[in-house]
Amino acid sequence: MVIGGAEDKLRNKVILTRFIQLAGGDQARIVVISTASSLGEAATDLYRQLFSQLGANVVSGLRPLTREEANDPSMATALEDATGIFLTGGNQLRLSSVVGGTKLGAAILAAHERGVVVAGTSAGASAVSTHMVAFGASGATPKHRMVQISAGLGLLKGVVVDQHFEQRTRLGRLLAVVAQSPSLVGLGLDEDTAAIVDAGQTLEVIGKGAVTIVDGSQVVTDAFNTKGYRPMMVSGAILHSLPAGQRFDLTARRLLTPVEQAPEKKERIRTRATAEVRRMAREIAIEGVDSLALERQRRRAKTQREASE
Q1: pLDDT in tens, 259-299
Q2: Between β-strands 193-197 and 202-207, what pairing exists: parallel, antiparallel or unpaired?
Q3: pTM exceeds cut of 0.85
Q4: How far apart are CA 277 and CA 275, in angstroms?
Q5: Distance from CA of residue 2 to its chain's centroid?
């Protein structure tokens, strides 16, 4: 379950609710892995609160920050009874470089193989595939060297995932990746939007936005001749823009019969914790857009607190 980031945490929580349902509902045992996040244990605590409110039976957290910690046998043991694993947003390169190829990384793969639902939001979504967008530039035009690819955690094969897709104008870099590696299917996930991929490689879209699928099987490109950071020619790429309810066969690369959508409930839950959840949701949403943005925000908040003391 790959999520484009900034999923609704305040109202109907459609995506997070679906995750808990897939993980077993009131029998769900969730492990939140927050290695990617720069917010520390606060990110784990936020999702622990949200998943508990949604009825999960047990919610625990893991946050290895070094490969030594990720190789601790206790990390793998913590996943043995899990029915759902949730990878937070933040920095996907931190997640893959700390967890990939460790005992924890192997335990995530083993859990996925035995049917545990694995969800990743934002950076966590990028990291679940075999080929991962490590970082890159925004823009609608594909250009040479505008994106860096590295190895992800390896759960989704033959797919490359990008997130905050519409909001951060990432079509160009996804086109560039697929043009250079046409065997991959590109998935661009809008915010508050998720793609659920089942064991048969059928993808279902849920959430507010759309999933953009880039099929490069018929692409023609001059990417191998392009120098520097110049625009590359990409022709013949097949684009699909799929809103909620649409389904797609990732193996055959074709559209399937959509899922019938139930009417959306217009419900807003107000609690004393809403203000804190809203603040944390904003901080989580801006992770990855600019490595300095969160730090600037924290400095402003600290200055304001000191001024009021």
Answers
A1: 987 665 555 544 445 788 888 888 888 786 644 444 555 66
A2: antiparallel
A3: yes
A4: 6
A5: 5
- The structure tokens listed for 222 are 């001059």
Report pLDDT digits (tens) over 124-157: 999 999 999 999 999 999 999 999 999 999 999 9
Single-letter residue type at 40: G
pLDDT single digits (tens) 107-127: 999 999 999 999 999 999 999
Can you tell me which residue has the tokens 């099929």? 215
Candidate list 96, 112, 131, 191, residue with the active-site label: 191
C-alpha distances (whole Å) from 84 to each of 22, 43, 119, 152, 227 are 8, 17, 8, 19, 44
Q: 164 an active-site residue?
A: yes
C-alpha 122: how far from its chain's center?
A: 3
End-to-end CA, the chain: 45
Cα–Cα distances (Å) from 271 to 5, 16, 17, 279, 280, in that order, read 23, 18, 18, 14, 15
Q: Please confirm, yes or no, whether 191 is among the known catalytic residues.
A: yes
Distance separating alpha carbons of residues 293 and 42, to the nearest angstrom: 18
- The C-alpha atoms of residue 56 and residue 49 are separated, in whole angstroms, by 10
Cα 128 to chain centroid distance, Å, stands at 8
Strands 193-197 and 238-243, sheet pairing: unpaired
CA distance 223 to 306: 53
Q: Which of 112, 131, 144, 164 is catalytic?
A: 164
- 295 part of the active site: no
